[in-house]
Amino acid sequence: MLFLPRMLLMGLHFIIAGILGLLLGLCRPFNPDNSRLCARLYSLPALCMLRLRVKTDVQSLFNQKQSCVIIANHQSNYDLYVLGRVVPPRTVSIGKKSLKWVPFFGQLYWLAGNVLIDRGNARKAKEAMLTTTETLQHRDTSIWVFPEGTRNLGNGLLPFKKGAFQMAIAAGVPIIPVCVSSYAKRIKLNSWDSGRIMIRSLPAIPTLDLTLDDLPQLMERCQTLMRECIEQLDQQLVEAR
Fold this sequence. Notes:
single chain, 7 strands, alpha/beta, Glycerol-3-phosphate (1)-acyltransferase
């Protein structure tokens, strides 16, 4: 009984948040802190509507003083609301170029300074990656990436793509993994309490002095740490029932 009214409210909220975020972007276009503010604008009301209880342990993320590459596991479209509450200041993300055609959201996403990549055009994708390196090194801005490249529905981590790690090595900035407990198949939108989710950030992984020869080991290390953390979070939620 709750699913339909919730979806109607969420649809209305998505439109209102999009309009407000678009106005913010028009007032201060391409300000890298727009992403954090818009993320909160989408996240906080939505979590209340959905009655999702999210517990966070992200000190390493917010205590980071320099630019970094943030990597997180990607489970569903609800990540916008779940992860929106932990986006740190001056953080932008990388998204598909097609996002800019989503009404309201696409335009505010662009005005927030996020990087849009045409994955079907290798030359333009490479140019965008070079831009992100300059952003990390000289603009005091971090970049948020989903290294799996697509949603995994909580079925364990998919193989990581190289882009995020190449960016971090090229810019010499640390990587901070952000892990979200498996929720995509456990969320109960037809119940009063939709479920519990845990988010934890791991200590920064330095990349200074690494080269592309170190790329495979770096990717494997990050994936192993994130997989172990997600399993721990899932187990903690099971034990807390």
